[in-house]
Amino acid sequence: MQENFKKIALFSSFPPAAMKKVNEIFKEKKYSSGTVIFTENSKGDYIYVIIFGLVKIFRSSATASADKTLAILKNGEFFGEMALFDTAGRSASAKAITDIDVIACKRNDFLNLLSDYPQTSLVIISLLTARLREANKQISSLTFQNSLGRLAIILCDLAEKHGVEKDKGVLIDIELTHQDLSEMAGTAREVITKIISTFKKSKCIEFYKKRILITDIEKIKGWIY
Ligand code: CMP
């Protein structure tokens, strides 16, 4: 198991003694697709690292009539660290969107690990910085782009993070409904349906086994301001 853990970015530069501790304090858990792992504002006692599968991180409107997807995390990525550091409660909800395997660690065990091996904190800072950059990109997109541009950016980002090369282009290897895309773009589902149809007519995307295949990424980028 230690060998598998080494491939995880969070642990990649942990010294062997810290990895030994990681093996002791992280426990395996499984959740089936659709399970809400925790909800926004709840008390946070665990950090999770995804070993297999996909987790959606999202916030709900006050009336819970709409969700905004903040990120779709995949194997190797972690979540649930923020509430451990500031005890202000979960900043967002987390839901398994496929069957998932995770390893989870209790707050005090994780904080003790960081204080026993302070150099490990640098890895976390660098990964959190990357997340802040992503969040800044999302703020710019929501502020400056129209719906076409937002969806174009989302498809390009999904292709980069979850893309698989195919003969005809890049397949985004996640089942995504128009509702899912609308929750990512912060745009009504009906609008997303129209944009998808525009992208299909211009021959830059196709559907393949309920997944989006990007056949002309340069054309998609042409919709971004
Ligand atoms: P926490 O606040 O404990 O619970 C929700 C988790 O979602 C949070 O920790 C982070 O791990 C994760 N998270 C929150 N915002 C984002 C974001 N913008 N991008 C990726 N992950 C996030």
What does this structure look like?
- By secondary structure, the chain is of the alpha+beta class.
- The chain has nine helices and twelve strands.
- The protein has helices at 2-6, 16-25, 82-86, 107-116, 120-144, 147-162, 178-185, 189-201, 217-221, and strands spanning 27-31, 36-38, 46-52, 55-60, 67-73, 78-79, 93-96, 100-106, 163-166, 169-172, 205-208, 211-214.
- The strands form three sheets. The protein has a four-stranded antiparallel beta sheet with strand order 1-8-3-6. The chain has a four-stranded antiparallel beta sheet with strand order 2-7-4-5.
- Strand 9 (163-166) and strand 10 form a beta hairpin.
- Helix 2 (16-25) packs antiparallel against helix 4 (107-116), helix 6 (147-162) packs across helix 7 (178-185) and helix 7 crosses helix 8.
- The longest helix has 25 residues, at 120-144.
- The N and C termini lie far apart (46 Å).
- The model has no long low-confidence stretch (mean pLDDT 93).
- It binds adenosine-3',5'-cyclic-monophosphate.
- The site of adenosine-3',5'-cyclic-monophosphate has 15 residues, from strand 5, helix 3 and helix 5.
